[in-house]
Amino acid sequence: MARTSRHRRVDGILLLDKPAGESSNRALQRVKRLYRAAKAGHTGSLDPLATGMLPICLGEATKVSGYLLDADKEYLARCRLGVATDTGDADGQVTVEKPLPDDLAREQVEACMQPLRGEIEQVPPMYSALKHQGERLYRLARRGEVVERKPRTVTVHGLELVELGAQELALRIRCSKGTYIRTLVEELGRCLQCGAHVTSLRRTGLGPFHGAAMTTLEDLQDRAANGGFAALDALLLPAETALEGWPAVRLPADAAHYLLQGQPVWVPRAPDAGWVTVFGPDRFIGVGEILDDGRVAPRRLLRGA
Questions:
Q1: Strand partners, 41
Q2: Separation between Cα atoms, residue 303 and residue 57, nearest integer Å
Q3: Where are the alpha helices (DSSP H) in 93-247?
Q4: Residues annotated as catalytic (active site), given as ranges
Q5: HSE of 290 in the Cβ direction (CA atoms, 13 Å)?
Q6: Which CATH number does the domain housing residue 98 bear?
Q7: In angstroms, how far is CA 124 from the centroid of its own chain?
Q8: Is residue 4 in some structural domain?
Q9: Domain with 295 in it
Q10: Closest of 92, 68, 38, 33 to residue 209, by C-alpha
């Protein structure tokens, strides 16, 4: 007798609200089990301390997850002034404690924030997942080792002071891939000459998903228990939503057929160059690229239902 697969065909993107204290991979595995999906992947890790948007791609949607890795991110960071830690966040050991400047005003904070906007250089922190000679930096840091790290160019598109209290402040940040918010806050603390670290970090947007509704693990478990797969699947976004804003081409049935066989096809009024999303008569087919001769070549195709 043939063995029944434990997996089922499920495709789409779930915008998960990752809880604090949970690793991104563990959250991914919990979602994958609830959906009983054969394939699943996330679009860039969040630190265990951080909460918020973690898009989970299921099934065929995993084929577009890579395009979200380079997307801009948005965060809301709460920071403690006057205390620096070895990790740059509340999980670390205190390394510096200093009094705050007298009568700290928004103008002082704004002046220190200005050099942190735009294209800047950042040295990755030792407590990060980057590798040095095959080993994660945070593992070296836990052994008390420090190695040289090359600066990286990142872009801070927006840095806004949302709230300023007696010893804390809140920042809204929109930035490029690879930006370390902890490092940004440490730089701000150094400029204010009192030190600072992140006490909480929430990702509020990623790529085209800005301000979108998110779902908690608790809500998923409740839906699974009371509504089954239909209730879970109702939360999924189509794969093409990850590529919102890309130029789109639409193919008639015959052209779609040839593209799905791996052949470039002619498309009237297609863009002159670049990457495009490709749609057939009734569904999203995948990602294509405009060739020099004007044809659309398949680059990443999605399997149909």
A1: 57
A2: 15
A3: 106-113, 137-142, 181-191, 217-226, 228-233
A4: 47
A5: 16
A6: 3.30.2350.10
A7: 18
A8: no
A9: 246-301
A10: 68
Which residues, in sequence order, are bridge partners of residue 8? 37
Digit-coded pLDDT (tens) for 185-241: 999 999 999 999 999 999 999 999 988 899 999 999 999 999 999 999 999 999 999
The predicted-structure confidence for 224-237, as pLDDT tens digits, reads as follows 999 999 999 999 99
CA 6 to chain centre: 29
- Which residue type sits at 174? R
- The answer on 117 and 16 residing in a single domain is no
Backbone φ and ψ of 141, nearest 5°: -60, -35
SS3 257: helix
Task: List, as one string, the DSSP characters of 51-75.
Answer: EEEEEEEEGGGGGGHHHHHTS-EEE
Q: Assess contact for 131 and 153: CB atoms under 8 A.
A: no
Here the tokens at position 246 are 């890309």
- Residue 37 DSSP symbol: B
Contacts of 26 (CB under 8 A, 6+ apart): none
Q: Strand locations in 124-235, DSSP E?
A: 131-132, 135-136, 152-164, 168-175, 196-206, 209-210
Number of compact structural domains in the chain: 3
Are the CB atoms for 298 and 262 separated by under 8 Å? yes
Is the CA virtual torsion 115, 116, 119, 124 positive or negative?
positive
| Tokens found for residue 33 | 């089990």
Residue 191 half-sphere exposure toward CB, CA atoms < 13 A: 16
Q: Looking at 32-46, 90-104, 118-132, 161-175, which range is the least confident one?
A: 118-132
Asked which of 240, 260, 287 is the last residue of a domain, the reply is 240
